[in-house]
Amino acid sequence: MDERALGDTHDRAGIVHRDGADGARRRCADAQMLPAAKPPDGATLFKQQCAVCHTTNLSDPMRQGPPLVRIVGRAAGKVEGFHYSDGLAKADFTWDEARLDAWLANPQAVIPGVIMAYRQARPDTRAAIITYLKELN
């Protein structure tokens, strides 16, 4: 029968040292002293989640989605040379932070029938990406 308890430690000879719950608490407290991980910035998130389909400049070849440089303040569905879905081509609004936030959360709720499948449920991630896109203006 194994008589090990939570918090037991073993030396090289296999001898069990009983430090019980106090030892376990000390190890948990030590683990909590680690610095918090820094959340990814907007540029990193964009590269991880958006750059497969979108560029951030007009000189790169078009991808599945339009380039997003200067998107804040731009009329929706109006990048020259990009073929938009019917819904986006007929859109009658200008991209702003609130519209981009809604779009990233659920593009089909903003314009039914659009092709973009990406959805981001986390408000902090959407905010970081939008902040990065604003920096590109």
Morphology: globular
Q: Counting H and I runs of at least 4 residues, what is the number of helices?
A: 6
Structural class: mainly alpha
How many β-strand runs?
2
In order across it, which strands form the biggest sheet?
1-2
State the major sheet.
2 strands, antiparallel
Q: How far from one another are the termini?
A: 68 Å
Range of helix content: 25-40%
Order of helices and strands: EEHHHHHH
| Proportion of residues in extended strands | under 5%
Indicate the mean pLDDT.
84
Provide an overview of this structure.
The chain is mostly helical and 137 residues long. Helix content is 37%, strand content 3%. The protein contains 6 helices and 2 strands. The protein has a two-stranded antiparallel ribbon with strand order 1-2. Helix 2 crosses helix 6 and helix 4 crosses helix 6. The longest helix is centred in the N-terminal third of the chain and has 13 residues. The chain starts with 8 loop residues before the first strand and ends with a helix.
Task: Give me a quick take on this structure.
The chain has helices at 20-32, 42-49, 86-89, 97-105, 107-110, 123-135, and strands at residues 9-10, 16-17.
